[in-house]
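Much of what follows relies on a compact textual record of a protein's fold. Here is one such record, which you should read through line by line:
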Amino acid sequence: MVFKMLQEFDLPARWTSLIQDYFSEAVHNLAQTWPDEQSLEVSYRIIEGFDTEFANDIVKNPDLHFHAANQALRQFLIDAGGAAMYPFVRIIHLPSDQVRTVSQLRADDIGQMLALDSVVTKISGVRPRIYSAVFECVACQHSMVINQPNEQELIEPIECEQITGGCGRAKRLTRFVLNHKESILINSQFIELQELPEQMKGGIQPERIVCIGEHDLAGKLNPGDRVKANGVLFIRSQRKGGKDTPVFDIFLRIQSLERQNIPLEEISITADEELEIKELARRPDIYKLFTNSIAPSIFGMDEIKGSLMLQLFGGVARLNEDGTRNRGDIHILLMGDPGVAKSQLLNYMSKLSPRGRFTSGQSASAAGLTAAAVQDPSADGRWTLEAGALVLADLGLAAID
């Protein structure tokens, strides 16, 4: 009962004390890097150390906490002299009992904060979405603010509000014009996530979920990225014949992202790591060292491991005199008796590569290995190209079992 009262009246104060005690330096850095960085990442483990009951309530009532946390962070930045900032608190490192696969999602999970281990299969373009709409009454020029919680429907005023100084005319007696300049628009993107193929049992097709990334999360992901998406599940009714049905589709509103693989172009090497790499390069046994570092629990197979190691580094691309280009990619075909660790080696290599992708006959995507043209329900039924395993593993390593 005491905590419920705290929840209703004192959540921003609790978040303020948490940020002040543990993240004051991170908030200062955020103020310096604004607007390139617009979010403060807060680990759930730190919140648990701060107050276990408070942490548990975040999972059960995430929307209340997101609003309070963002409000507290903004006030913190205003006090530090940053007036025109609208930052976001992103909660990461959720406990293992809140981690799900797409096929495990059930009605009890709706409204809770969950983490999904998944791979990005499809993204839409980043589009502006109205977050808070300002409508003007044509009859009396009175302005009204209507919040827009639904990303698939624009909510218009029913009447011109007399309480706020309007004429009181109903919608059928006047017309309401949307004022784009006064409205608040945010970046929004639809992202389709698929559960990891290696998590599937038997020949079941991996399931998918449509997610919504907003604000600074829009435009962060590319197809093929492995992510842990933390967010809140919500539902929208399926429509048939222009009417809502009692069956609902599940969506995920992404609150934070944890990248499981980093693209090559985003890998930054520190000065210490560069020194270590140069020291390794001077060793005479470097070839043997790299070979033995591949799947060390699988004994023998030195020639195969050496080939796989050379494949990771790749060959040299050459441009010929006649303008044709020879690719430096190395392709390997492994053949052997059952039970000699072929699949284990493939799986290991796909996890070692920054954009590795493992697929087998049992868990191949619906698009196959290259691409397929499919009708996209989130794009009004337009035909779109869906990437297969080879496309998702571009500039990485595709392991096909």
About this structure: The first strand starts at residue 39 and ends at 43. DSSP finds eleven helices and 17 strands in the chain. The chain has a mean pLDDT of 79.
